[in-house]
Design a protein that fits this description.
The protein is mostly helical. It has helices at residues 2-19, 44-50, 57-60, 68-80, 88-102. Helix 4 (68-80) runs antiparallel to helix 5.
Length: 103
């Protein structure tokens, strides 16, 4: 989603600068770095599911101590409200890992 919005934004800026006679420009976005707390094989389902919509830092900077139910509810909200592309069998794994590591 972020990539699509960035591409649309760049296309609009490019079209506007071409229409005004300005030279086109390019912007190179940095590669996302996986935070250390999610940089292992066990966390791959979390990285794959969550990074399609937002930064992984969004996860790792959430306040600690909210518990496993908070993460189950959050994963359910991301799927049901925001249409996160997470398969039902992966949702439980994602919520369980997030609850264990950040709950």
């Amino acid at each position: 989603m972020r990539v699509l919005l960035a591409c649309v934004g760049l296309a609009l800026l490019s079209a506007a600068s071409a229409a005004s006679g300005q030279k086109p420009f390019t912007i190179e976005l940095p590669d996302e770095v996986v935070p250390a707390a999610l940089a292992d094989e066990e966390a791959e389902p979390v990285v794959a599911a969550c990074s399609t919509c937002h930064s992984l830092d969004y996860i790792t900077t959430q306040p600690r101590g909210k518990g496993a139910q908070f993460w189950r509810d959050t994963v359910a909200k991301m799927i049901n409200v925001y249409q996160a592309p997470v398969e039902p069998d992966e949702a439980g794994k994602v919520a369980e890992l997030l609850g264990r590591r950040f709950g």
